[in-house]
Automatic annotation (TrEMBL):
Its cofactor is pyridoxal 5'-phosphate. PANTHER family: AMINOTRANSFERASE, KYNURENINE_ALPHA-AMINOADIPATE AMINOTRANSFERASE, MITOCHONDRIAL. Transmembrane segments: none annotated. It comes from Paenibacillus taihuensis. Keywords: Aminotransferase, Pyridoxal phosphate, Transferase. The keyword Acyltransferase does not apply. The keyword Cytoplasm does not apply. GO terms for biological process: alpha-amino acid metabolic process. Residues 40-381 form the Aminotransferase class I/classII large domain. Homodimer. GO terms for molecular function: pyridoxal phosphate binding; transaminase activity. This is 2-aminoadipate transaminase.
């Protein structure tokens, strides 16, 4: 049989992270590649107790549910959103199978093949996969340590008339960067002027190393000006556990309504067991304290990784210290190809993600993304020693 796949599928590239994982199967590899939270910090007992409470409610807990999501969970999430100055009612919210699905649904309901989406350069790899699968024209906007360069965004809006901008303004993936308030306001102002919708993806915003730091979401800034330009999505994957596959999106009723229709077609609804479990968890478990605990631990892990890298005294390996999130974005010496470095690193049983995969265009090959949340202590020290050995050998050869 000759399978005649769609042209979008033919263009689809497999994720570099998955390819690396394949490469490393069955080996004693220390991986800084995946965006994995620390397993030892998962609130296992609290999730078990929450799930037990759900089962105690009886057989009804196993029934089909609403496409928009379990109402008590949406109500609790609305309260959490209001604490961040995002004021919505449950019918302006949809529960999704991770925020990954929110990105997919938004693309499906708003974009036609060939429509333009602006993205940061670099940006979240799996969003590029979604946009590719939808046949979108992805136009990267030059970005620096403070976020998207607004003048560039404006130039590209005039040139390409995009329908949507996709951004991760707080502790982005892969860069870990946090946008300045000026850039946040600048983008909202542009989108209001040019009638462009923003998809704000915020899985990491709560994982901040300075508990008192305040990074207003684009959604909250837009709200002050009348609203309607931002669809915001977040997830429990990084703050509770990714296995629960529960995220949510908030936005104008019309948009959420159409996302619900698209979701019916995709999966009817996300797991009601997981949603009920999270509802119980939010009622009985101090989630904010837990988020403070993991943020503190991740901040310590980042310090450890930075100290290990600094010990190497490389003059031309640089990074900007992230203020939150899960990733350290390394700039390696000019001309170094981090994909080749990865192959050498894998021989030494350590993995990371080469930077090129995160660019919609003009990939910078001398960048590397290292996750600092999954490993710690001796294991992190061994992993960074292996990485350093690979890099040093590589530099000596070049
Ligand atoms: C920027 C970004 N958006 C979305 C996701 C998807 O998260 P979820 O597990 O909620 O689907 C991730 C996961 O790593 C991410 O880094």
């Amino acid at each position: 049989m000759e399978y005649r796949f769609s042209s979008n599928v033919q263009r689809l590239q497999s994720s570099a992270v998955r390819d690396i994982l394949k490469l490393t199967q069955g080996k004693e590899i220390i991986s800084f590649a995946g965006g994995l939270p620390a397993e030892e910090l998962f609130p296992l007992d609290a999730i078990r107790e929450a799930a037990e409470r759900v089962f105690q409610t009886g057989k009804n807990s196993l029934q089909y549910g609403l496409t928009e999501g379990y109402l008590p969970l949406r109500e609790q999430l609305c309260v959490r959103m209001a604490q961040k100055n995002m004021h919505v009612t449950p019918d302006e919210m949809i529960i999704t199978t991770g925020s990954q699905q929110a990105i997919d649904l938004v693309s499906r309901i708003l974009m036609n093949p060939g429509d333009v989406v602006l993205v940061e350069n670099p940006t979240y790899l799996a969003s590029l996969q979604v946009f590719g699968l939808s046949g979108l024209n992805v136009v990267p906007v030059e970005s620096d340590k403070d976020g998207m360069i607004i003048e560039e965004a404006e130039r590209l809006m005039k040139q390409h008339k995009p329908k949507m901008v996709y951004v991760v303004p707080t502790f982005g993936n892969p860069t870990g960067r946090v946008w300045s308030l000026e850039r946040r306001k600048g983008l909202i102002e542009l989108c209001q002027r040019y009638g462009v919708l923003v998809l704000e993806d915020d899985p990491y915003g709560e994982i901040k190393f300075d508990a008192n730091a305040n990074y207003p979401t684009l959604f909250s800034l837009d709200g002050k000006e009348g609203g309607g330009h931002v669809i915001y999505t977040s997830t429990f994957s990084k703050t509770v556990a990714p296995a629960l596959r529960t995220g949510w999106a908030i936005g104008p009723r019309q948009v959420i309504g159409n996302m619900a229709k698209a979701k019916q077609a995709a999966d009817l609804h996300s797991s009601t067991l997981d949603q009920q479990t999270l509802d119980q968890l939010l009622q009985h478990f101090p989630l904010n304290d837990h988020i403070r605990t993991i943020s503190k631990a991740y901040g310590d892990r980042l310090q450890q990784m930075q100290a290990l890298l600094t010990q190497q005294r490389w003059s031309d390996v640089k990074w900007v210290e992230p203020k939150g999130g899960m990733f350290l974005w390394l700039e390696l010496p000019e001309g170094l190809d981090s994909e080749a470095l990865l192959r050498a690193a894998v021989q030494k049983n350590v993995a990371f993600v080469p930077g090129a995969s995160f660019y919609a265009a003009d990939p910078q090959r001398n960048k590397a993304r290292l996750n600092f949340t999954y490993t710690t202590g001796e294991r992190m020290a061994t992993g960074i020693a292996r990485f350093s050995e690979a890099l040093n050998e590589f530099l000596a050869r070049c």
